[in-house]
Amino acid sequence: MDLLQFALLGLGVGAAYVLMGQGIVLIHRGSGLLNFAQGGIALVAAQTFKLVRDDWGVPAPLALAAALAVAAAIGAAMQLLVLDRLRERSALVKLIATLGLLTLIEGVGVVLWGDSAVPMVGILPTDPVPLGGGIVVGADRLCLLAIGVALTAALWFVHGRTRFGTATSAVAENPAALAALGHSPARIATLNWVLGAVLAGLAGVLLAPITGLSVTALVLSVIPGLAAALVGRFSSYWWTLVGGLGIGVLQSEIVRFWDVPGLSQSVPFLVIIAMVVLRGRVLPARGEVSARAVRVGTGALRPAALVGVVIAGGLVLAGASGDWRLALTNSALTGILALSVVLVTGYAGQVSLAQLTIGGVGALAAANGSARLGLPFPLAVLFGTAVAVVVGLVVALPALRTRGLQLAVVTIGLGLAIEALVLRNPGLGGGFTGLTVGEPDVLGFSFDYLAHPVRYAALAGVAFLLAALALANLRRGPTGRRLLAVRASERAAACSGVGVLGAKLYAFGLGAAFGGFAGALAAFQFPRLDVADYTTLGSVTLLIQAMIGGIGYVGGAIVAGLAGAGGVVAELLSRVGESWTDAVILISGVVVLVNLVFYPDGVARTFAEVAGHALDEVRFLRPRRAGAERPPTAHPAARAERPTLRVEDLTVRFGGVVAVRGVSLQVRPGEVVGLIGPNGAGKTTIIDAVCGLVPSTGRISLGDTSLAGLSPRQRTRAGIGRTFQSLELFDDLSVLDNVRVAAESRDRRCYLLDLVRPRAIALPEVARTALTELDLTGVLDVAPEHLPAGQRGLVGVARTLATDPSIVLLDEPASGLDDEARAEIVRLIRHLAEQRGLGVLLVEHDVRLVAEASDRIVALALGEVICEGSPAEVLSHPRVVEVYLGSDSPVQPAVVGGAE
Question: Which domains does the chain have, with CATH numbers?
């Protein structure tokens, strides 16, 4: 009976999670965003309700109305004042905006209400309701369940059966098209934010009597809400209901039957992981390429300026008083933690909300190594760093199958699980008294902070300096280029020969090493370890503060360090007034929201530009870059004989839809094969299948080598090169570096060497020849985004040729070009085939261009081959005529080309 009893109790809590999740789904359907501040809105509503009802004596219904009105106002303000101004920015920037709102509300809560749980009387009846068989459930739990089901049904009806629901779905899919139909995307998005915030407010008022009125508990209630919404794919209200109720039941059963500290809090994370494993993809689908996240720094060093900074820092440290010395030490250690955020999120584009908790693992491991294993200080620090790396790689595993907003959900859930199961585990942390660590000394030279604060502070400062130099080195080398390529487009990176999975694992692993190293050092700052500051919300704050500084710049980590817990900013505020110390989080939330609107790339970028121009005027202060801008030529062995691409009985299915059925074709060396067909015929899908980007059946071989089971990177190395219709260039890299990514992708030594001394790997002759033939030598240092459309396309071709392919797959190379540029494309294609002996598979809507460039043409309709032959034969074939013109007149290339 206990099983059923606790399941019913869990349904009540789960219903509150349902309300939280339904609000998240509602906002996502109306704007495409995930509102991580949903729990914060719930907190404000619950506090408002308690204030109005208990302190002002207003009747409960009116107090509830006031609480929901406040929640609605927060939702409307967020959309109108912040998100509407960020509508052209990437999903990452908008995500951080919601995290900024969460941080702002958390800061307000800490300042106004503290973080102790306060009991609150609910608005629902709590009388026991006997259900038979000795099972008794509170009336409030049954009411919560009824409210959750009723609101789910209402939302399903509104969004599935009304014009407003249709418009809501359309605004996230294509706001421009919706506006063309006479609807206001901004108004619809605002209304959905208001409704979603109201649901959050209602969840907060109903959940607070169960969890207690606590800042942390209510703010983090967004995590089970996110997990429930993930079950519903952020779109289905009914599946979100199932997810929320299921999480509530699982938590309740675990509390009853498993006495494992923190396990019940980890249930949302387990649900999230299950969804990611079942639904994730190793590479994103076509069309998932996101807008640029944030700009990144160059990593260029100015040795003379660096020496000056070191000398100035030493003088400041030597003259600082005790409080300031402690603040500088804390800032240096937090800065190392923030470097991990710059690496993982800024460079690699992987949103991680678990970096501070990973640092906590490093601190806990180092302390245990010292206290229980008897490791000396240096080995204990290395041990803590190594354990953190292992945890970081575990965090990275979900990133191999998801990305973007869903990855943020995964990492915040994992951060909470680490906090609950590991950092709050009394068996690991030494209980209430904590762990006593050994004295930090190296070969008898003590770094004990209490006895030698200057030494320890200097150690922390040097550690930050070395970590920052390593990250700047990495940015300038091949590793930095690979990470930025993965951030820009995982598909294009994979088809350029970059190991996407390896790059992600490397970023998370090295980021965890930075975090674990900082935590391990911090563990020895005082005699007893305290991991209370290593929290999930602290990870969010760390990300926010790095974003303020510039999450793509090493300087962003400096700003985050200064603003970190117990850092320089906190010390400055304490001089204003002791109560201002707790306002750091609040100020961070305000600043990041303002920053995202006016300086979305962070203050470090602005400072770097202004200071850089000034320092460039002084010769010895100019930056030193890695390698020459024109690397020396290498001469790899040429391919003895280029193989033939054979595609036999290729079939591609997406669920129940057959996109390509039984297609067979060949592309021989020195031959151009055109692939034509109307939209939806399966042309690009065939290219994706040949590259390994979509699963397929049939046989694909290159010469005598079957490509079955090979990843996109392995197929590129085998000799398959491709361009993309959407180009998918790496816009944070120069033209030369776009080509370098493909040319350098076979060298793995740089993952270690770049941390110490990045170098420019010799550009192969084939890549240099491509740059010359495509007339790109004059724009090598220009970012592709600043080039005209025609040259951007040529950059994609040059990047493809840099992989030294045998077969080139060109996907819409003439898209958006004028007649003169199209003629140049034809000449280029014939040159690749006739002069370089490459086999070319050309996909293009411009039939005239295909006819001029191709030796043979394969025509498709509805995923099947309808005819194959010479251009003249195919274009006069009755089926081709019918498909293109719907008549029995022969297809004239000029007419069809013009129509396209």
Answer: 2-260 (1.10.3470), 303-621 (1.10.3470), 645-719+805-899 (3.40.50.300), 732-804 (no CATH)
